Amino acid sequence: MVQFTDALFVALLAIASSVQAAPVALNKRIQQTTIDAVTPWENACDAAGGGLQCNPIAVTAASTLLAAAGNCDQQNSADAMVTLAKTLNNNAQMITLAQIFAQQPRNSPTSQAVQYCETAPQNAELNGFFQCQFEGSDQTTFVGGVAVGVLTTPLNPAGSCPANPTGPIANGVQLNTLVTSPGTPSGSSGAAAAAAPPPAASSSVAAAPAASSAAAADNSAATGAAATSSSSTSASGFALANGQAAQALNAQFATLTTSSSCTAGQDACVNGGFAQCVNGAFVVTQCAGGEVCAALPLVNSPGTSVTCTTTADADSRIAATGATGGLTGDGSTTAASAPAAPAVASSPAAAAPAATAAANNSAAASTSTSTSSFALSNGQAAQALNAQFATLTTSSSCTAGQDACVNGGFAQCVNGAFVVTQCAGGEVCAALPLVNSPGTSVTCTTTADADSRIAATGATGGLTGA
């Protein structure tokens, strides 16, 4: 990761005597616990007063170390770290940790060196920094079989970076546990040569290889982080990060079972159903017919919600953020990379008392096949549900399978009575309109997010239509 000049080049090619990595068996994945690479930065951000902006950026950054990430994704996240640090009185510790993160080795799906970013960073503080490589990687070939070219200033030793100029990093080890200084950026006085791709294969190096089965396996096996995600304080910035965080959650949910460990207050999707952690184990409520449980991106603030919805609706909401790769980020249409999200509850469209059932039927019964037609109906149905929810209490009658919002919390009908789980801090339970099909969903989200989604359908009158 570096700002390039005509005299500034780096390649992985090293003199044979300087290559420190032992012979490797290609096709063996080299991975790490990615969240460990960003935890120190997040802690510094919290201490600096970054609040809710810290964790989303950290979550997104952790995902950029996966093998399937783009060549410049890691640098982009480091830029987001530095940009936030500048808004917090130019916090020096956050900037230093961002510079170290920018040099953390990325996962390799084939035990080959991982290609460098060829684009200059947004923040000058990252100029001259690029990632180290893991020592188990073949330092003479990039992932995808691209041979390293011979330059006038090859990187020596191969696999090194400014923070660790003596060579590559032990497989799976975090650079932040080895160094406290980012080192001297390449191109500065006394520094090593800076990173650049082999000129003979620059077009190949610039493009990340097509996702392989090994890369997909890496994506599902790597450890991620909590539910929320953001890479910018602007709406457009956190929208993309929210979409990517939702994809990461959906990828992780695919690995969970009812025997997976969990902690009180965690909600997730397990075997296609909405799951809550009760007494250390997930209790699963299956979604309504035709719906699946999925993590969705929030619209008006950094974060995600977990709810029962249609696959088409989930795909549409994620795609609207600019995130590519469908529900899980790898093109999969089933929920498949981060641990279960804490305390962001949701569930299928509620069918509480008579007015609730009528509202749901109204949404589902839209006779128009056009999106614009059922969108308004969905918005109005969500408003009707929210108005009805305001009248419910824990003693309200219900039937098995009904979900609703009661006293601001997400409620499920168990043995004829509502059992309420309170939403996370700053969130409320609300009915939301589906996007790609008639109907509604019930989830914990922010009031601003719920208002925005309902208003987007053309429905007026806010959350309840009143």
TrEMBL record:
<keyword id="KW-0732">Signal</keyword>
<protein>
    <recommendedName>
        <fullName>Carbohydrate-binding module family 19 domain-containing protein</fullName>
    </recommendedName>
</protein>
<feature type="compositionally biased region" description="Low complexity">
    <location>
        <begin position="180"/>
        <end position="196"/>
    </location>
</feature>
<feature type="signal peptide">
    <location>
        <begin position="1"/>
        <end position="21"/>
    </location>
</feature>
<feature type="region of interest" description="Disordered">
    <location>
        <begin position="176"/>
        <end position="196"/>
    </location>
</feature>
